[in-house]
Amino acid sequence: MASAKYIFVTGGVTSSLGKGIISASLAKLLQARGFSVTIQKFDPYINIDPGTLNPYEHGECFVTDDGAETDLDLGHYERFLNTPTSQANNVTTGRIYNHVITQERQGAYLGKTVQVVPHITDEIKRRMLLLGQTGEFDVVITEIGGCVGDIESLPFIEAVRQLRWELSPTDSMVIHLTLLPYLKAAGELKTKPTQHSVRALSEAGVQPDVLVCRSEYPIPAEMRKKIALFCNVAPNAVIESLDAETIYDVPLLMKKEKLDERAMKKLKLTSRQDINLDSWKEFLGRLKNPTEEVKIALVGKYVELPDAYKSIIEAFIHAGAFNECKVHLKFIQSEQISFENVSSHLQHMDGVLVAPGFGERGFEGKLEAIRYVRESGIPFFGICLGMQCAAVEFARNVLGWTDAASTEMNPTTSYPVIDMMEEQKQVTQKGGTMRLGSYECDLKRGSKAYQAYGKGHIQERHRHRYEFNNKYLEAFQEAGMIASGINPTTGLVEVVELQNHPWFVGAQYHPELKSTVLSPHPLFVRFIKAAITHTKNRNK
Ligand code: GLN
């Protein structure tokens, strides 16, 4: 078995430079050349995983098929590569320490002092190599979260240093992402922060092979030479990364800058095929030349930070491109929606999505939004909490059970139409304890969900504690809200839809987590189609 090649991606100067997108873009280019590639992210924080973080803190929590709660960059990896990731693709400092400390209690290091070096760094190295040892991948790209120079990322950088020493020189490389700030007053790009950040990395014993420099302006040739000289890299190893119109342009921009060729040269890889980005380019063509446009409201409580809904936003981009339709997303804070103002918020919308979420804040506003679209025939898509809200709204306003609720919001309601799952009632621990990951679902023939997927059996990803209360299912179905998707083993309601409505679908699972550039999610595709029809009818 040939061993995998390892590419480490570090970042300096500031965070938010887009290491995830650069990693995913390089991976895409290598994949297009016939290599099998995976990307993993090592995050320096102490949480075992981002599952317990507030979305305001860290953006969306991305859930994998195997039920791992992970960093949102894994979403980018999947959307670019069209291949699933797993728990092994996301490791935090907390997870490393947890493992080492558990081992220590089990006597694994009996008699020894357990230390950051070598015990923590050994465990980091073990995990960095893990996916490469499965034989599944030619290339493993490891993105190191945070910035070089941060106290907390030191053990990761030290692990990279050791691995570079241990692996053959052609089996690993380091790409360092930095920023060239533009000083308006001086009218210049500045290289000093890049020099300092490369120096910090070198002081830790890691010399980068390639620098990817984020810049708002093209980098003059002379400046590239200067950066190369002072940062000790080959002149053609200074790669320019300009702001892109869309993140999906970045693979092509990186190809133009020959990032993939630099990597292949360093790792002594020869392309397995002529680079094939046909379907990627086709997607970009449709994305950039829309023939339709729709306005979609995204109703949620974390709307101030769009990263909280990253996968939903991207799923709209995929589904929009598929339909050659420009999707204008309008974020609406659900707390601001009331009976009095709902029509002014939503009457011009072609579709309304009610987002996933937790807790009471903004719940009533979501119900108002749903009542409005149910009554006015605007296409509706509810995801997870959004689906649960649709059930509560229907119970209150159609079935007339005025105090119906989810027990998450009102534990003493007389109509708990959404209730905590039985298996969740015993759970006290937080983090990794919800119903997580991929589960089966059977779809009802003839339903909108069935039409969208074009098949009757699907698997989708979950992250929830509450579920539709089957005690009330019959009443719901008789009144026109049907369960069109059911888990075949447990009977849990996975999809609800309204029969006398142009398009009203709620999913207990998270379809957005499986939407990729090459496989846009069928429910998003159909929702956009319904929105296009709605706008046409409105303008007749
Ligand atoms: N809070 C709801 C539950 O736990 C919905 C979760 C979600 O939207 N992801 O069931």
TrEMBL record:
A GO term for molecular function: CTP synthase activity
Entries under Pfam families matching the protein: CTP_synth_N, GATase
Residues that hold CTP according to the record: 15, 150-152, 190-195, 226
Keywords: ATP-binding, Glutamine amidotransferase, Ligase, Magnesium, Metal-binding, Nucleotide-binding, Pyrimidine biosynthesis
Annotated ATP binding sites: 16-21, 73, 244
Binding residues for L-glutamine: 56, 357, 385-388, 408, 465
Residue ranges of domain CTP synthase N-terminal in the record: 5-269
Database matches in InterPro entries: Class_I_gatase-like, CTP_synthase, CTP_synthase_N, GATASE, GATase1_CTP_Synthase, P-loop_NTPase
Ranges for region Amidoligase domain: 1-269
Active site: 384 (nucleophile), 510, 512
UniProt enzyme class: ligase
Transmembrane segments: none
Catalytic activities: UTP + NH4(+) + ATP = CTP + ADP + phosphate + 2 H(+); UTP + L-glutamine + ATP + H2O = CTP + L-glutamate + ADP + phosphate + 2 H(+); L-glutamine + H2O = L-glutamate + NH4(+)
EC number(s) from the headed UniProt entry: 6.3.4.2
Residues where Mg(2+) binds: 73, 143
Regulation: Allosterically activated by GTP, when glutamine is the substrate; GTP has no effect on the reaction when ammonia is the substrate. The allosteric effector GTP functions by stabilizing the protein conformation that binds the tetrahedral intermediate(s) formed during glutamine hydrolysis. Inhibited by the product CTP, via allosteric rather than competitive inhibition.
Residue ranges of domain Glutamine amidotransferase in the record: 305-529
Binding site for UTP: 15, 190-195, 226
Note in the entry: CTPSs have evolved a hybrid strategy for distinguishing between UTP and CTP. The overlapping regions of the product feedback inhibitory and substrate sites recognize a common feature in both compounds, the triphosphate moiety. To differentiate isosteric substrate and product pyrimidine rings, an additional pocket far from the expected kinase/ligase catalytic site, specifically recognizes the cytosine and ribose portions of the product inhibitor.
Family under the similarity heading: Belongs to the CTP synthase family.
Subunit structure: Homotetramer.
Physiological role: Catalyzes the ATP-dependent amination of UTP to CTP with either L-glutamine or ammonia as the source of nitrogen. Regulates intracellular CTP levels through interactions with the four ribonucleotide triphosphates.
The protein's name: CTP synthase
Chain's gene name: pyrG
